[in-house]
Amino acid sequence: KIIIVDFGSQYTQLIARRVRELNVYCEIHPFNNLKEMDDSVKAVILSGSPFSVRDENAPQIDLTNIKGKMPLLGVCYGAQYMAQHFGGQVLPSETREYGRANLSFVSQSNPFMKGISDNSQVWMSHGDTIKQVADNFEIIASTEDVKVAAYHIQGEDTYGIQFHPEVYHSTEGLELLRNFIVNVAGCSQNWTAASFAETSIQELRDKIGNDKVVLGLSGGVDSSVAAMLLKEAIGDNLYCIFVDNGLLRKNEFEQVLEQYKFLGLNIKGVDAKSRFYEALAGESDPEKKRKAIGRVFIEVFDDEAHELTDISWLAQGTIYPDVIESVSATGGPSATIKSHHNVGGLPDFMKLKIVEPLRLLFKDEVRRVGKALGLPDNLLGRHPFPGPGLAIRILGDITPEKVRLLQEADAVFIDGLKKAGLYDKVWQAGVILLPVQSVGVMGDERTYENAVALRAVESTDGMTADWVHLPYEFLAKTSNEIINKVKGVNRVVYDISSKPPATIEWE
Ligand code: XMP
């Protein structure tokens, strides 16, 4: 495997994803909590950082057991850090070195630069620049403005690049990473979704043995893939629970339950609609609604788990971005770990051990593993859907009638996206029921009914998002269909806010 040392750059995860795209396994470790380098580590990559190497509190790392002992690549801050610590000089750059640049010199004979074109486009993002390097540093690439765009420390497999090979705008960036991983570090590219599935099924088997495991399915990609891995590993000792909280999409509970059964999962569907509606009755504060849903979910899940005997494990669909120890923005030593929030956490009174089969995977990898396990595309390509479901798309208090109305409108929108071939082009979409009534006219009648908002966004991780420019014709058709079919709605608006400053959901 490859270890990526994180100095807090926004691009660190991207480096990891690129390395894995090259079918090589890698892990991200915070600079201030490095593990011992054992034989399994084939190379180390130092990330960028929001810090300058000249800052007093700049992140430091002890490279004694790494540099010269194994292949090492510094990216941006990582490159500047090594240049500065090993006899060179880093200063603030005179011209701002951000964005697009083109290489003007490439040392083709160097294994790291092999095949990289002379004027390759690269992406810079740094306020400092390497002014001087020690004598044993060989410059292997330059741009017009940046002489030391890449260097090689002679006599060892140590490299530095001041630009970012991990971003798409560096057009041959993946090529460079491949050169480092394959030509320099000699890694074999055999870490694939199928190989991951195979090894993790064996590992789960060894770990769990004949124990029984309970898992909460949500209909989403992560919990579904986790369930399939466990099913392959332990068969009918996996007990799945799928709760109908009354806040799912139209017919979703029945359809998804059917599909899970078809996949051979040992699953129990629990109709807990009324328990959720009771807990939500009269509550219109968004945070209190979320809390109530989380609480009831745990109660229901716990009741169901108690029906089962001899359960010793709780499986969760936690994925890698949830478990990477983040280097805090201040670079301080207090690394925090984010915890998963979908299942609502484990109540103390359920003393179960936790198993998280996806904790090493990024979202796109979860999909690929799901595909390797034979999960159908319609399940793997589903839009994300929030744990509290339609409750956070009904502004104000929840009633079964409002849920029904929203389900109808949502179904028109989502089915329409599918029919128009737009569903897969959108990251997430849904309808929001507004606490607003307005005057309309239908036939000769005056109406005074609800307004709904359509929301469709493009995003990669939900952290930032932009509204999708859906075709006017499609919006016109959808609006018309909702108003005609969904009794109680006489006005449809389209949400054209980006995140930030808005959020994807309205509550
Ligand atoms: P926001 O509204 O914060 O949403 O822009 C970002 C993404 O997170 C989803 N979301 C949730 N998912 N439990 C979840 O499992 C929640 O409480 C929750 N709140 C928001 C939202 O659908 C979007 O994909």
TrEMBL record:
Tell me the pathway.
Purine metabolism; GMP biosynthesis; GMP from XMP (L-Gln route): step 1/1
Residue ranges that the Swiss-Prot or TrEMBL entry lists as coiled coil: none
**Sorted alphabetically, which InterPro entries does this protein's record hold?**
Class_I_gatase-like, GATASE, GMP_synth_C, GMP_synth_GATase, GMP_synthase, GMPS_ATP_PPase_dom, NAD/GMP_synthase, Rossmann-like_a/b/a_fold
* UniProt keyword annotation of Repeat present: no
Q: Which reaction does it catalyse?
A: XMP + L-glutamine + ATP + H2O = GMP + L-glutamate + AMP + diphosphate + 2 H(+)
Gene3D superfamilies noted in UniProt: 3.30.300.10, 3.40.50.880, HUPs (3.40.50.620)
Active site: which residues? C76 (nucleophile), H164, E166
- Annotated ATP binding lies at S218, G219, G220, V221, D222, S223, S224
This entry's Gene Ontology molecular function terms read:
ATP binding; GMP synthase activity
Show where the GMPS ATP-PPase domain sits.
191-382
Q: Which GO terms describe its cellular component?
A: cytosol
Instruction: Cite the EC number.
Output: 6.3.5.2
The entry's keywords? ATP-binding, Glutamine amidotransferase, GMP biosynthesis, Ligase, Nucleotide-binding, Purine biosynthesis
Cross-referenced Pfam families: GATase, GMP_synt_C, NAD_synthase
Q: Which NCBIfam families match?
A: guaA_Cterm, guaA_Nterm, PRK00074.1
- How does the annotation summarize its subunit structure? Homodimer.
Q: Which PANTHER family does this UniProt record tie to the protein?
A: GMP SYNTHASE [GLUTAMINE-HYDROLYZING], GMP SYNTHASE-RELATED
Function noted in UniProt: Catalyzes the synthesis of GMP from XMP.
Protein name in UniProt: GMP synthase [glutamine-hydrolyzing]
